[in-house]
Each structure stands twice: as C-alpha cells, then as structure tokens.
Amino acid sequence: MSAGHVRKRIEGFPRGWFMVAFSDEVKQGEILSMHYFNRRLMAWRGEDGVVRIQDAHCPHLGADIGAGGKVIGNTVQCPFHHWAFDDSGKCVEIPYSESIPKKACLKTWHVVERNGMLYLWFNPHDHESTPEFDVPVTAYDTEEGWSEWRHSKIRIKTHSREIVENVVDIGHFQPVHGTHVETFENEFNGHIAIQRNTGVAYPRGGGKDRFSLEATYYGPGFQITNMQGYLNAMLVNAHTMVEDNVLDLRFGVSIKAREGEVVTEEMKDKYIENLTVGFLEDVQIWENKVYRDLPM
After folding, report:
1. What gap in Å lies between CA 96 and CA 101, rounded to an integer?
2. What distance lies between CA 150 and its chain's CA centroid?
3. Mean pLDDT, residues 116-125 taken together
4. Which residues of 116-130 are buried (b: 16+ CB within 10 A; e: fewer)?
5. d(Cα 209, Cα 125) in Å, to the nearest integer?
C-alpha cells in the first residue's frame, strides 16, 4: 500500500469509566476472561456477590488465571500451581510453601457495579489513578417495572472517538438511518455531554415511531439514553477499547410498559432488532472511513 493510501487512524486510549460487561455475564463463583486496553483481564464474583476485576496473568509464571482458574470463596485460584489471590490482588496462599513473596500481587482495578452493568476506571497515563467522576444511578436501579437488559456486543475496527462524535452529528440521521429530526440540541458540562432530539423514526419493518430522547455521555466510554416513543425505553451504548483502533461496542435495551400496557417478548425482540440494524448502519461507515483532524 502506498503512503498516499495509508489509512489515518486515531492513536491512544481515552480516560474514564468503561463498561466491560453486563452484570448477568459474571455469575457468582465464575470468572469472565476479557481483553481490554491491550491487557488480559478477568472479572470474577466471589461468594459475597461482589465483582472484582484484576489483571489475569499470574505473577508466578504468567499463566492466564481467566483461562481455567477457579473462584474459591472470595479468592481466585491460578490453574497452574494453585496460587490464590484475594480481592485486593494479594497472594494469600501457595499450597506448597508457607512463604509468600511480597510482590506476588495482581493489579486490581477500580470497579463499580450499577444499573445492571460493570464499569472499570481506566487512565492511560496513570494506571493507579483514582476515578475523577462517578457512574450515575439510573431509573433502572431506582424504579420498579424496568425489564432486564436485552443486550448484545460486536467487535469493530474503529476508535471510540468516532462513536462519541455522533452526539453532535445531526446531519447523519436522515442519510444513514432514515430518521426525520424535528428538534436537536446539545449541552456540555464537564465530563457530561447531552443530546436532546425529537422527530420521527421509520423502522425497517414498516410504520413510523414519533420519539423524544435525551442521550447522555458520562465521559467517553458510555451513553445512557431515555427514549419516549412507541415504547418507553432506556438504552445503553458503551464502547471499550480492546487494542489500538479495535473496540467492543455493547448496546442494551430495557423497557418499561406504560400503565395498562402489556409489553410482549415479541415486541421487545422487534424493538431490539430495529436498534441493532441502526447500529450496524453506523458500523459500516466507522470501519471504512478515514479520520479527519480538520473536517470541512
């Protein structure tokens, strides 16, 4: 490929809270292996119900604890030599030795479990840094009647900045999604970016849906949207960098029926199907575009 055809990409990882799983993906007594920010990680839930996220490679001989390790009580055990580590990452047991090296520790990350999701704090310049803002509490945790999350995940070749920029991009709704926008505004306050939007959507299966939404980014990692339309819905759009210009895009839907209404499983499935189609329309563009520092 000639120099003139090299695809320009965005470098580096952003700083903030990033969603790494929905809560139901980490069962009690189990380990979820994951790879984010060019690191092997693992999430595990102890017998106390609390989730920990730690670096996965054992400090002993480098085995990936997320690949074959076990949760024992409130510790996690390496599959190679059964070294056990507690929730702080400290090694607390070596079966064949009474002496435990002081440096035998796993990096343990700041984690919040809220809104049926697991969030990890990441700072590319300081892996020991403390969080600079909090994860919001949503109506999912405070109000009765919201359905369990219906969620999905896709891995795409892009940078999260491309997705965040959608918060201000009124111009792509009609060409990409066939949505008629009637009102559109943004608000920015520190780590928060809000998009308020009303209009008419035309689902691919037919019909039309008049909607009103407020979509809020909390830092560069995840967006929570409250949408009023055919259904009352809460949406989450979360993107977490896997490695350079590769990310996992998670999206989920929770629905709350209006008083006197019944929301069937078929209705939920159709609603999520339409949202998935919309996401994939954006993905096709993200994966094939170049990045413009100074767009026209």
Report:
1. 13
2. 14
3. 96
4. bbbbbbbbeeeeeee
5. 44
- Write the DSSP symbol of residue 14: -
Query: Where is 276: in which H helix or E strand?
Result: helix 265-286
Reported for 85-91, long-range contacts at CB under 8 A and 24+ positions apart, including other chains, are 85/54, 87/46, 87/50, 87/52, 89/54, 89/55, 91/59
- Name the one residue in this structure whose structure tokens are 């139901």: 24
Residue 1 β-bridge partners: none
| Separation of alpha carbons 287 and 215, rounded Å | 23
Give the SS3 label for residue 23: helix
Distance of alpha carbon 146 from alpha carbon 231, whole angstroms? 12
- In DSSP notation, 118-129 reads EEEEE-TT-TTP
Model confidence over 39-69: pLDDT tens digits?
999 999 999 999 999 999 999 999 999 999 9
Residue 20 CA to chain centroid, in angstroms?
5
Q: Which two tokens stand for residue 147?
A: 């359905």
| 19 neighbors 240 (Cβ within 8 angstroms) | yes
8 Å CB contact between 262 and 222: no
All residues at 6 or more sequence positions from 128 whose CB lies less than 8 Å from its CB, including other chains: none
Q: In this structure, is the dihedral angle defined by the CA atoms of residues 114, 120, 126 and 129, taken in order, positive or negative?
A: positive
Kindly report the pTM of this predicted structure: 0.90
